[in-house]
């Protein structure tokens, strides 16, 4: 699977998709309504992103190392695949590619919203000429 | 979706306390509704999977009469399954991962159900039936020397998951893992289980284990086909369409729920009924082979292991004098439909010779009618044939421990006794 090379890339694209999501007139309010914070720990390369949906803030690096309602840990490759709709949540969990902490109920509320963002993520990669990251 | 503000019925069946009562106590309440307000508007219930009730949430229509359950089940143009069918709300993600055809509407439902059904060939069914009889024999033989056992874990719970694993082709070394995961999925509303783990985590863990094991089998069969159901599912093709891996995993997960607790609960309820009604037991034993096909329908009506399923209205519809608006939730109470005095003579009697063509335990005879009904009946015939021949005086002893649930008419524990064999 094609993947990210640097922490900056992860912050740019994965952080970027949450920025777009919060700005979206349909998805943004639905995300805020969840009232939750989500933290994501990435490996290969390492990165941390925390999104506070009601506060509409996206934190990275040291700032992101905070308590959250739900915590997802995965490799950067898995994250890139997930946002393109190529990774099944239960299967990734079963194979140890993704672990969840905190409230599973909160995560289950977010998952359907993430689906609406798959095309947005792919077009963001296209706009940035990152066809290398797109999974056929 | 609808702005209509309606008063909730004075008979409140959304109260958690109502669902902690025994089935008989609940039936007394349903009988009032059937007679007086067969379609009633009820306040919303909370779901342990979704958290507290949202204050803006509307209530639901309670459908308690046999004929109305049939109407709701058949009119799939009006009553949709796609937004979930459990009484308690499920996250939509869970529907996709775990409920397959159960929460699809036409045309997708028709297409996928056809693909799946095409793999249940007569040859495959008769093969699994032979295996079910052998397995039932082993289960009963395994307890015959004991004389006194907890029936649910020793008997009822054993056959259903074994059947599904065998049918799908789950490798021997994975079966225990599958059994545990399946049990996590069906007990998310059991306080004993969910005390240890929050319900959503329990369910998600169960689902992910099942998906993982199933994908391994899919990959193995794709690489080297065998003569089993999973190979057939991988290869199935109807009108140029085939099943995706996601669809196969979701179907397998559905089987682990739909085909597990249902037969298990029916087995326990039936042992209790045969104990309570010795005349019916004698009647059956006198000519088991000649009477079991009719009797088994009464087992299922009597148990009504699935008590509730819901739909969402897509159009305005008149039902028993009430106007259901688009977007309204509608919940069918199968257990009540199976006690409807307009559909059955003396429904309160366990009667193994009864004409049971109206029973709605497998659903109201619409397009979602239980796909496993034949298999369920085979399992019940096999296990009771073995019980009544190997342990002819087996009986339920003492009171059962009921499951508090709005969905499954469950018994968690039931002691049974019999003369121990050599
Ligand atoms: C006594 C045992 C059982 C009972 C009472 C039962 C009950 C039901 C009910 C009420 C429905 C929904 C029907 C509707 O919406 O109209 C259903 C659907 C289903 N059942 Fe069963 N079931 C039993 C055993 C089984 C078994 C053993 C299997 C499979 C191994 C199974 C597989 C299914 C499937 C796949 C569906 C979904 C069908 C669809 O949506 O098209 N069931 N069952």
UniProtKB/TrEMBL annotation, chain A:
Coiled coil: none annotated. Residues 24-115 form the SCP2 domain. InterPro entries: SCP2_sterol-bd_dom (IPR003033), SCP2_sterol-bd_dom_sf (IPR036527). Gene3D superfamilies: SCP2 sterol-binding domain (3.30.1050.10). Pfam families: SCP2 (PF02036). This is SCP-2 sterol transfer family protein. It comes from Haloechinothrix alba.
From TrEMBL, chain B:
InterPro entries: Cyt_P450, Cyt_P450_B, Cyt_P450_sf. One of its GO terms (molecular function) is heme binding. It holds the Pfam family p450. It comes from the Bacteria. One of its GO terms (biological process) is cholesterol catabolic process. Belongs to the cytochrome P450 family. This is Cytochrome P450.
């Amino acid at each position: 699977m094609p993947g990210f090379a640097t922490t900056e890339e992860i912050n740019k694209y994965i952080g970027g998709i949450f920025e777009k999501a919060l700005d979206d007139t349909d998805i943004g309010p639905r995300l805020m309504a969840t009232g939750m914070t989500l933290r994501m720990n990435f490996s290969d390369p390492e990165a941390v992103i925390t999104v506070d949906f009601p506060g509409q803030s996206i934190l990275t690096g040291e700032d992101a190392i905070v308590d959250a309602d739900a915590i997802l840990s995965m490799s950067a490759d898995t994250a890139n695949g997930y946002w393109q709709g190529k990774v099944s949540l239960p299967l990734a969990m079963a194979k140890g590619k993704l672990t969840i902490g905190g409230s599973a109920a909160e995560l289950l509320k977010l998952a359907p919203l993430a689906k609406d963002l798959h095309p947005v993520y792919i077009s963001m990669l296209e706009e940035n000429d990152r066809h290398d990251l797109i999974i056929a | 979706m609808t702005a209509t503000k309606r008063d909730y019925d004075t008979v409140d069946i959304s109260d958690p306390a109502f669902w902690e009562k025994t089935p008989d106590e609940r039936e007394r309440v349903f009988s009032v509704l059937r007679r007086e307000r067969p379609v009633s508007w009820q306040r919303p219930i909370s779901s342990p999977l979704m958290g507290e009730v949202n204050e803006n949430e509307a209530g639901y229509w309670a459908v308690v009469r046999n004929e109305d359950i049939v109407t709701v089940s058949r009119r799939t143009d009006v009553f949709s399954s796609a937004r979930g069918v459990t009484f308690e709300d499920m996250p939509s993600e869970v529907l996709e991962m775990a409920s397959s055809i159960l929460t699809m509407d036409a045309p997708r439902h028709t297409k996928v159900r056809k693909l799946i059904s095409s793999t249940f060939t007569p040859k495959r069914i008769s093969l699994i039936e032979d295996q079910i009889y052998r397995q039932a024999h082993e289960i009963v033989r395994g307890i015959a020397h004991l004389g006194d056992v907890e029936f649910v874990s020793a008997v009822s719970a054993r056959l259903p998951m074994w059947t599904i694993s065998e049918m799908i082709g789950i490798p021997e070394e994975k079966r225990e893992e599958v059994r545990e995961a399946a049990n996590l999925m069906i007990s998310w509303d059991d306080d004993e289980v969910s005390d240890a783990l929050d319900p959503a985590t329990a369910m998600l863990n169960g689902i992910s284990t099942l998906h993982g094991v199933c994908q391994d089998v899919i990959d193995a069969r794709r690489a080297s086909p065998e003569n089993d159901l999973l190979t057939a599912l991988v290869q199935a093709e109807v009108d140029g369409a085939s099943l995706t891996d996601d669809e196969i995993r979701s179907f397998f997960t559905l089987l682990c729920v739909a085909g597990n607790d249902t037969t298990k609960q029916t087995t326990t309820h039936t042992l209790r009924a045969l104990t309570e009604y010795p005349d019916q037991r004698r009647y059956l034993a006198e000519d088991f082979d000649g009477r079991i096909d009719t009797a088994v329908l009464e087992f299922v009506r009597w148990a009504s292991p699935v008590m509730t399923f819901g739909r969402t209205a897509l159009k305005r519809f008149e039902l028993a004098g009430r106007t259901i608006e688009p977007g309204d939730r509608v919940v069918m109470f199968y257990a009540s439909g199976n006690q409807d005095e307009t559909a059955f003579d003396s429904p309160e009697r366990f009667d193994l010779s009864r004409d049971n063509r109206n029973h709605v335990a497998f659903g109201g005879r619409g397009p979602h009618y239980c796909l496993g009904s034949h298999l369920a009946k085979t399992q019940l015939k096999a296990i009771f044939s073995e019980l009544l021949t190997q342990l002819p005086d087996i009986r339920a002893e003492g009171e059962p421990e009921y499951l508090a649930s709005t969905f499954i008419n469950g018994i968690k524990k039931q002691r049974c006794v019999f003369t121990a064999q050599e």
